Each structure stands twice: as C-alpha cells, then as structure tokens.
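step 4 of 6: structure.
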Amino acid sequence: MLHEEPFNKYSRYLKKKYGQPVYRVGIDAGFSCPNRGKDRGKPGCTYCGENGSRAPYLGTGQNLKGQVDGTISFLKDRYSARLYILYFQAFSGTFAPVSDLKRIYDYGLSLAPFRELIVATRPDCLDRKKAELLAGYKNMGLDVWVELGLQSCHNRALTLINRGHSVEQFVKAFNLLREYDIKVTVHVIFGLPGENWHDMQKTIKFVASLRPEGLKIHNLNISADTAMYNEFLTGEFTAPLDLRHMDYTIRALEMLPPETIIMRLTTDTKHEKLVSPGYFIQKAKFYSLIINEMKKRKSYQGKHFLS
Ligand code: SF4
C-alpha cells in the first residue's frame, strides 16, 4: 500500500489529481425514479424515505442556478473552495428522455467551470443513447462518472428490498458504461434484512471482480418514513451499529482492488427520522475509528484482493 492511509480515500484521490481539494456540488434536478413513480405511485425500495435518495443537505427546489450558486458560495466561504464537480445526486439522474437529459446536463454544466460530471442512477435507467450522451461530455475535458446502485449481489435480497431490478440488469448497465469508458461508482448496503457477513462478502467479491473505479459503502439506516420501518417493528432485524459496520467495512476493504476509490463508508439520514441504528458514531469520527483499527490490525485495502 503506497498511501499513508490504509485505503484509497476519495478526497486524497481528488487532491492528488488536481493538486488541491475539489468539491462536489450536489443538485436535485427534479428527476424521479421508475421504482417509485413520479409522485410515489409505486412503493420503491423498502428503505427509501419521502425524500428518496436525495441527501439531507440538498435543497428541494428545481432552480438549478440557485442550487449551484448557493452551494458554491457556501463552499467558498467555508473551505475557500476553488474547484468543483457537478453532481446530479437526487433520485435517478438518467430517468428522462435523452433530449431532456442533454438540456439539463448542458445547463447544469454551464453554471460554473466544473471539472467533472457525476450522475447517480439505477441500472434500469441506462441505455446506449444515454451512455453515448454521457460519454460525449468527456470531449469537453470532463471526467464523467456514473454512480450505479447494486446494494447486494443476491437477487433474493434485491427482491426483499423491492429494488425493482436484478443483478443481471446491473451487470448489463455496468458493461455498457465500460464500453463507453465512463467511470463507475458502485453502491452497496451492509446489513440488509436477511443478509449476514457471508452474503455481504459475496457482494464485495462480486464488486471486486468488476474492478469499478469507485465504491460507496452504506450502513443500513432505517428511517421512520419507509416501508422497511414496518418490517423493523417485527423485531426480526436491526441495522448494524458502528463497531459492527467498522468490522464489515475493514474486511470488505481488504478484498477490494487497491486502486478502487472509496467514496463513502457510511449513510446520512436526517437525525429526527432515523430509527435504527440507535447509535452510530459521527461520520468524521468513523473515518478515524476505521483508520486506527486498520492500522492496529495491519490491514489495508487490497490485502486479500485476488486479481
Ligand atoms: S432507486 Fe433510489 S430513489 Fe428509487 S426507490 Fe430506490 S432508493 Fe428510492
């Protein structure tokens, strides 16, 4: 392991690439999600709350300029930020006709001199035309990333959480993005109902075999406004606490390719809605906790990666 830290942390990757910190400007462009329908006419993933996959810090307005200006001004004040990435973070960022997507991405990118474009989406919201559109932004000198939800490599688990797509659909979308040389960040969740470490280990092995450029690991959060909350009330499962999640994460990092960029290790849920885990250490402290524990265990990303 070449790095001082025992895993390939996203912020360090960006700093090394650009010579200074780069900040994501997360926006909600008003996309919906086929798994929940336009106004939640469908149930969606069982862990999906009222706000869907929108991060708690995001505004809900559709005024992209206002969102971009507001976030950049905040980042400048708080961190003296100078470089930015445009991040279509909320819901399924490719769930629209290609002509609408082009208009929205073009407009978003015109609002500031962004260095990269990131679009979060679902495997069933990608096709060749959309991949072509996304790949086209590389001609503007931008790095283009797609964040693709997998959550588990077990169709049984995907059915249980009502993901609305299969592992096979995920693989098809992943390979399509590979064909266009678009960088992919895979999302997984640790602690899904009915899954033990053995299941999660298989998911990580599966992800490692794909060698994605990025990975986001989420610890299961059960929010009061979700279908999963009603299942949780049966008492048959709980979300992992921080020490359990730390152990899963360390073992997962050891199995991953050393070059995969680790873009997230925990989940953000609005505190007032979070039901389980009842206690989880703050995000920044979790990073210190995991780094210290990895050093203690002489552990590092890729330690058990089998190429
Ligand atoms: S894919 Fe995302 S937005 Fe859609 S239902 Fe699942 S969690 Fe919610």
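step 5 of 6: annotate
 - The domain at 10-296 is CATH 3.80.30.30 (pyruvate-formate lyase- activating enzyme).
 - The mean pLDDT is 93.
step 6 of 6: archive
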